[in-house]
Amino acid sequence: MEFDENKLRAVFAEALGIPEADVVPTLEYNTIPQWDSLAHMRLIAEIEDAFDIMIDSDDLIDMSSFAISIDIVRKYVDEA
User: DSSP assignment, residue 15?
Assistant: First the structure.
Protein backbone atom coordinates (compact mmCIF):
# COMPACT_ATOMS: atom_id res chain seq x y z
CA MET A 1 0.00 0.00 0.00
CA GLU A 2 1.22 3.48 -0.80
CA PHE A 3 0.87 6.29 1.74
CA ASP A 4 -1.93 8.72 0.87
CA GLU A 5 -2.01 11.99 2.82
CA ASN A 6 -5.54 12.74 1.62
CA LYS A 7 -6.72 9.41 3.00
CA LEU A 8 -5.14 10.24 6.36
CA ARG A 9 -6.78 13.68 6.29
CA ALA A 10 -10.16 12.02 5.65
CA VAL A 11 -9.61 9.61 8.57
CA PHE A 12 -8.76 12.55 10.87
CA ALA A 13 -11.86 14.46 9.75
CA GLU A 14 -14.13 11.45 10.24
CA ALA A 15 -12.66 10.42 13.61
CA LEU A 16 -12.70 13.94 15.03
CA GLY A 17 -15.97 15.02 13.40
CA ILE A 18 -14.44 18.06 11.74
CA PRO A 19 -14.29 19.24 8.11
CA GLU A 20 -11.37 17.96 6.06
CA ALA A 21 -10.39 21.59 5.41
CA ASP A 22 -9.66 21.92 9.14
CA VAL A 23 -7.16 19.05 9.06
CA VAL A 24 -3.98 21.02 8.41
CA PRO A 25 -0.37 20.28 9.42
CA THR A 26 -0.62 22.65 12.39
CA LEU A 27 -3.65 20.83 13.86
CA GLU A 28 -2.49 19.60 17.27
CA TYR A 29 -3.82 17.32 19.99
CA ASN A 30 -5.87 19.11 22.65
CA THR A 31 -6.01 22.39 20.72
CA ILE A 32 -9.60 21.77 19.64
CA PRO A 33 -12.35 20.28 21.81
CA GLN A 34 -12.87 17.42 19.35
CA TRP A 35 -9.32 16.07 19.80
CA ASP A 36 -9.21 14.99 23.43
CA SER A 37 -7.76 11.79 24.89
CA LEU A 38 -10.80 9.67 24.04
CA ALA A 39 -10.90 10.98 20.47
CA HIS A 40 -7.16 10.30 20.20
CA MET A 41 -7.68 6.61 20.90
CA ARG A 42 -10.56 6.47 18.40
CA LEU A 43 -8.37 8.27 15.85
CA ILE A 44 -5.53 5.77 16.31
CA ALA A 45 -7.92 2.84 15.87
CA GLU A 46 -9.37 4.35 12.69
CA ILE A 47 -5.90 5.07 11.27
CA GLU A 48 -4.83 1.49 11.99
CA ASP A 49 -7.94 0.15 10.25
CA ALA A 50 -7.69 2.46 7.26
CA PHE A 51 -4.02 1.73 6.60
CA ASP A 52 -3.94 -1.87 7.89
CA ILE A 53 -1.12 -1.10 10.34
CA MET A 54 -0.46 -1.47 14.08
CA ILE A 55 0.98 1.65 15.72
CA ASP A 56 3.26 1.00 18.69
CA SER A 57 2.76 2.81 21.99
CA ASP A 58 5.73 5.19 21.57
CA ASP A 59 4.39 6.40 18.23
CA LEU A 60 0.86 6.57 19.64
CA ILE A 61 2.12 9.00 22.30
CA ASP A 62 4.24 10.97 19.82
CA MET A 63 1.31 11.47 17.43
CA SER A 64 0.49 14.94 18.69
CA SER A 65 -0.25 16.77 15.43
CA PHE A 66 -1.42 16.05 11.93
CA ALA A 67 2.09 16.84 10.61
CA ILE A 68 3.69 14.30 12.95
CA SER A 69 0.96 11.79 12.11
CA ILE A 70 1.91 12.02 8.43
CA ASP A 71 5.49 11.00 9.24
CA ILE A 72 4.47 8.21 11.61
CA VAL A 73 1.85 6.66 9.34
CA ARG A 74 4.14 6.96 6.31
CA LYS A 75 6.80 5.03 8.24
CA TYR A 76 4.41 2.14 8.93
CA VAL A 77 2.99 2.07 5.41
CA ASP A 78 6.48 2.07 3.88
CA GLU A 79 7.48 -0.86 6.13
CA ALA A 80 4.44 -2.93 5.09
Answer: H
- Residue 39 carries which side chain, given as an amino acid letter? A
Would you say residue 1 has pLDDT above 80?
A: no
Torsion from C-alpha of 59, 50, 9, 30, nearest 10 degrees: -40
What is the tens place of the pLDDT at every residue in 33-50? Answer: 999 999 999 999 999 999
In the chain the domains, ranked by start, together with CATH numbers, are 5-79 (1.10.1200.10)
User: How far apart, in Å, are the Cα atoms of 41 and each of 2, 32, 69, 77?
Assistant: 24, 15, 13, 19
Contacting residues for 47 by C-beta, under 8 A, at least 6 apart: 8, 11, 15, 53, 55, 69, 73
Contact (CB, 8 A) for 11 and 27: no
Question: Residue 80: what pLDDT?
Answer: 78
